[in-house]
Amino acid sequence: MNWIFLKDLLSGVNNYSTAFGRVWLSIVFLFRVLVYVVAAEKVWGDEQKDFECNTDQPGCHNVCFDHYFPVSHIRLWALQLIFVTCPSFLVVLHVAYRDERERKHHLKYGEGCQQLYANTGKKRGGLWWTYVLSLVFKVGVDVTFVYLLYHIYEGYDFPTLVKCSESPCPNVVDCFISRPTEKRIFTIFMVVTSLVCILLSLCEILYLVGKRCSECIHRMQGSQQINKARSIANMNSNAHLDSNSKKLASKDQLVPEYSVAMAMSS
């Protein structure tokens, strides 16, 4: 399978990702996609052909292989890589939607009109939620496939010998997996890289949520300071008005006293 198209489609994601997202994307391409394409596909090859059992009973080989390998590792990883990279397309599509809205807005009101977005690629508003939900989806996909791999194959180990007693096998037969050690190494490698990607996505979610909470706190503190400054200014202005009114009242009281004094002197 050709995975080059994923690189072309996700090349623009780095423009809207954080440092954690860029590291995540590098790990996905270098340690998951390239390892999958270059080595993993060749290691597995034709699994059913290389799966040998010490019996010639018709159908026994097929049912034993289906019992121990209900889903191929290589196909399961292919689905995992497809599903884990799809959420990144949502971010690119959301930015493209913003760009289109901005273009139509300028066509309608002219080039000198006010912009709808200061930066269409900045993670604010709906784009922030799209980005965070895409990270949550990535974590869910990786966790689900890591669990499925463990549940279906009852661990990440490849035994050299497996015993099968499925019908129509006449009795318990011995079956042998080709290159079990090599497959075990690649399975553990893919699981570890999936766990690293999960950790990076969780760190990015915490970073984005923490940054948003910090911005909200600073905004609230700024608004409180502005309100406090306004209240202080209002108090000062009221105090100034009160002092002026008191001065005017004192002047009004002095006028009749002066007139009475003049009358008494006369």
UniProtKB/TrEMBL annotation:
Lineage of producing organism: Eukaryota, Metazoa, Chordata, Craniata, Vertebrata
Gene Ontology BP, a term: cell-cell signaling
Keywords linked to the UniProt accession: Cell junction, Cell membrane, Gap junction, Membrane, Transmembrane, Transmembrane helix
Annotated GO CC locations: connexin complex
GO molecular function: gap junction channel activity
Annotated signal peptide: none
PROSITE patterns assigned: CONNEXINS_1, CONNEXINS_2
Membrane-spanning parts: 20-39, 77-97, 128-153, 185-210
InterPro entries: Connexin (IPR000500), Connexin_CCC (IPR019570), Connexin_CS (IPR017990), Connexin_N (IPR013092), Connexin_N_sf (IPR038359)
Subunit structure: A connexon is composed of a hexamer of connexins.
Name listed for the protein in its UniProt record: Gap junction protein
Gene3D superfamilies found in the cross-reference section: Gap junction channel protein cysteine-rich domain
